[in-house]
């Protein structure tokens, strides 16, 4: 009798432990802190989400592949809006599974040297933020998050169409409480 109950408890515990890796991060959920190799203006460096959050909100956006048409459109749109994000106290970081050499070139060409992009070849960050494209698991999905300085999801938007991500992220950063946004 005790054995089936223990088996069920173990199954629930194992399912509960696996859940954060596969469940979508929702508003209010804490985000996994990460460091990753990143590129800005063609130069590589080590990016730390914790360090960025210490300065204010972070817009973290995942994209499938550098130099693809839609990813270039999206990166260009974020680059064009970077001054608006900065005026609100927010920083922007893009993440994909591309290697750092590819992203170093992309950071100049499509990101216009205005914001960094991070390489996540192992997909640890992509999986941690539930941004893996289910139909093409070698790629990140197009998913954007606004993360408040306390390390929690303030807003997210997922859509393969790149057209609305920047607008929605700007609106979400504007909607943050003033003390949070100007930290």
How would you summarize the topology of this molecule?
Layout (H helix, E strand, L loop, with lengths): L1 H21 L12 E6 L2 E6 H5 L4 E5 L6 H19 L3 E6 L3 H10 L7 E3 L4 H5 L14 E5 L5 E6 L6 H11 L2 H4 L2
Parallel strand pairs: 3-4, 4-5
Antiparallel strand pairs: 1-2, 1-5, 3-6, 6-7
In short:
The protein is α/β, with parallel strands linked by helices.
Task: Note down, in words, how this protein is organized.
- The protein has seven helices and seven strands; from the N terminus they run αββαβαβαβαββαα.
- It has helices spanning 2-22, 49-53, 69-87, 100-109, 124-128, 165-175, 178-181, and strands spanning 35-40, 43-48, 58-62, 91-96, 117-119, 143-147, 153-158.
- Strands 2-1-5-4-3-6-7 form a seven-stranded mixed β-sheet.
- Residues 1-23 have low confidence and may be disordered.
Cα(first) to Cα(last) distance is: 56 Å
> So what's the overall shape?
globular
Per DSSP E runs of 2 or more residues, the count of β-strands stands at: 7
Q: Assign a percent range to the helix content.
A: 40-55%
Uncertain residue ranges: 1-23
Question: What structural keywords apply?
Answer:
alpha/beta, seven-stranded mixed sheet, 7 helices, 7 strands, 41% helix, 20% strand, disordered N terminus
